[in-house]
Amino acid sequence: MSRLTTSLLALAACLAPAAALAEPAPPPADDGLPGKILLESRLRHESVEQDGYGLDAEALTVRTRFGWESPEVSGLQVLVEVENVAAVIDDYSSPLHPDPLRPAIADEEITELNRAQVALTGLKDTEVVLGRQRIVLGNGRFLGNSAWRQNEQTFDGVRAVSTALKPVTLTYAWIGRVNRPLGRDHPQGVWKGDVHVGQAESDTPIGQASLYGLLIDLDNAPAQSSATVGARLAGARAFGDSLSLTWELEYARQSDYGDNPGAFDLDYRLASAGMKGGRWSAALVYERLEGDGTYGFQTPLASGHGVQGWSDVIGATPAFGVQDVFVRGQVQLDAPGLEKPVTLKAEAHDFHDSDGEVRLGRELDAAVVVPFQKRWSVELKGARFESEHPMYRDTVKGWVSVEFRY
């Protein structure tokens, strides 16, 4: 019996006792606990085959979050959430337990306070959140919660969102601590410093426009400190009965900041054009992160998974930069017995250095997401990266996930 088969049987065994609770009735409004119970769990099998290692990596991990969000009282709302990550199969190189014979899977076993925040909801047209919280700026390309990893990235600080200047929405955040997916016991699992984030966004006749800036000054990771300012436009225009043209344009400029020992000025560019119908979409995308031979344009606080292929082989931007030209698409299909449609996704990437002269590799990705009942979903996902460049290794990754959200 293969290890994957064993893992899937273990997955089924773990889920069987919970299946009867898949559709719990909500507590009576008058007799139940006030506020909202937060409960979600994700059981995932991940396998990695990568050139250069004697053994493959295999992980069966379960992530559980449990918390409570209070009702609003006198303009205040409290949220507390605990997160646990446990490994049923741990045949992989983890952040705290590296194994030179196996590829890395960045899911460490941990129990931690994931979120602990107070929201000031009584202000007119403005919400302020203080404490440990989830922050995602725009599409998460520069600031996000790294939701793909079992231990998500959260931030200690304050965030304010205001619509007082309609139609403009203003966002500001100050972050003093970054709780990274590596876990608090890892030497780089927690970044401390002084991070300022600002964004102004508004709907326009040609799409949603946003201006943003990030000032990142990290005490224990000075090489990741930088100042980035940028602008983004994303929109769609309908034509015909059910078709729309879609587009994205983005530009950002990054320079050294704070205690960063380097000196650089680098560009980020993105352009996308696509089509979408009622239940499908497709796009051609060009993304370029510049490198000057010494430094590359970095996004250290981003939700990194999937932005340059799902394999994550190309993570931090190399000194020669990265140019990624890819096509992506998805379609939703009805399936017998399911209330919600099945989603199929696929991407194909071609990577070069930022000058477009040296090929770094190519990648194919595919996934299917199957929702069943009301709170459950299953995802099967795979990525294949191939390269002849000495910095990158041929890699095949596969995932089978089951997720429950209360």
Descriptive notes:
The chain is mainly beta. It contains 1 helix and 18 strands. It has an 18-stranded antiparallel beta barrel.
Terminus-to-terminus distance? 34 Å
- Number of helical runs? 1
H and E string: HEEEEEEEEEEEEEEEEEE
The largest pleated sheet is described as:
18 strands, antiparallel, barrel
Question: How do you describe this structure in short?
Answer:
4% of the residues lie in helices and 54% in strands. It has 406 residues and is mostly beta strands. A hairpin with an 8-residue loop joins strand 11 and strand 12 (265-276).
Layout: helices, strands, pairs:
Blueprint: H1 3-19, E1 36-50, E2 57-69, E3 76-91, E4 110-120, E5 126-133, E6 154-162, E7 169-179, E8 190-204, E9 207-218, E10 226-239, E11 243-256, E12 265-276, E13 280-289, E14 322-333, E15 342-352, E16 359-372, E17 376-386, E18 395-405
Antiparallel strand pairs: 1-2, 1-18, 2-3, 3-4, 4-5, 5-6, 6-7, 7-8, 8-9, 9-10, 10-11, 11-12, 12-13, 13-14, 14-15, 15-16, 16-17, 17-18
